[in-house]
């Protein structure tokens, strides 16, 4: 909302802010600060104070439920603007804070008499001006404010848009990720730049089967029929499992036809061809996303090869994997449209350079065979200025080379292929050394075991003073309930998840899948805990991009960790 306000109501809003502050616009130090709505009260208060925020844009719901209690801790705050079209009372709010509706701010900024003579209506920024302080979702500890200047945004978007052929006014983009996510923010600004239409949605209203769509009503994709879509792997994994679940419910003839068409098109794609006749059979699957999607971009986390191939085949469009971070304006690499390989994230964008740095402790070096490996470093005009008021982090994660170019140390481990494409193979923070000396990549284990039909989400965990891995699992409710019925187990969903028999059944399938994809013995979880509670950003166990918050998950399941490590 903050960025939409900036783009579409910039002149009116800044005129209004000047009036609210009763000062010249030229004296206003203007930049935006974004926070995820799911950040805890303590994290939000920390960020607001760190940036010295004076004006806050939010919704009535968030204002009443999350912000009201921390407002006395924000001495710099002067004005709150809420976007809902209703009135709220200022009773119970700290003195000195004025509360306005968005509608009233727009009206105030639009009045010509509110522009004093001699004031500029528009102050043009320069490339080095601070545009946004974007707070990370806090997957590890306290959130950090990434300082993004205008030239960072332009550089990052130039690189991203170059990989999307034919981007223009005929395209329609469906926006449902938070604008506080760098991928969504840059995608929407790019759409505005190229004249694309934008339709606003949410994860709960995307398709006809979404949780907040009334039975018989149409989802946003069906109505909007988008041609472009960005998604995080978690969303694509859900689509994959839902479709394959529907396939299992088909009659024998339909199921056989689907599998034959899927297998034939898979072979054709591997050869670099399409299968137009088979696409007719996937028409109903394509309709789940409106039937008009010509390109999908996945970012935020590694996309499993199986899910990527499924989206390629059933939605009849290229699925590009991208790699980037908030610290690089979301830009780094994106796969070419014609590249149908899986597991890779593409070649560097035109806005940046990538190099690999040896990480001897983890066993990754540029001399590795068959391809060089190491920590991924990204350099270029898209690399941001560092973390706000965090000099120690700047020195640790950012550096400037002898040519004056800014670089960021990502902490991700990459493997460079001969054609210049990058593959993410590990993450430094996800690597745990077991008691016997073996290194376990938690991310690798999680990515592999998501192929289990009984698993919706998984978090692997290991202690350095133990010699085996354990896991917390959100099971697929439909599949596990059906399996429980076969075993003669009845009860509530929570009771089914707490049954030791069901834990053993899930563990048995995990071992089968792990063996088939050749995980090492020490990588396979020995004990698991089934969680009846799904992990959503609202629970605080995953970020808004559905990345695992390992620290929060560890604290949440501390008793289960003690139980599973108490006996093998």
Short characterization:
With 568 residues, the chain is an alpha/beta fold. The protein has 20 helices and 23 strands. Helix 2 (10-21) crosses helix 5 (102-110), helix 6 (150-162) crosses helix 7 and helix 9 packs across helix 13.
> Helix count?
20
Low-confidence stretches: 1-20, 22-28
Share of helix, binned: 25-40%
Strand order of the largest sheet: 8-7-9-10-11-12-13
**Overall 3D form:** globular
Structural class: alpha/beta
Structural notes for this entry:
The two termini are 50 Å apart. With 568 residues, the chain is of the alpha/beta class. The protein contains 20 helices and 23 strands. It has a seven-stranded mixed beta sheet with strand order 8-7-9-10-11-12-13, with helices on both faces. Strands 14, 15, 16, 17 and 18 form a five-stranded antiparallel beta sheet that branches. The protein has three domains: 2-124, no CATH class; 153-426, 3-Layer(aba) Sandwich (Rossmann fold), CATH 3.40.50.12780; 434-566, 2-Layer Sandwich (GMP Synthetase, Chain A, domain 3). α6 (150-162) packs across α7 (182-194) and α9 crosses α13 (305-314). Mean pLDDT is 86; it is low at 1-20 and 22-28. One of its GO terms (molecular function) is arachidonate-CoA ligase activity. Residues 32-388 form the AMP-dependent synthetase/ligase domain.
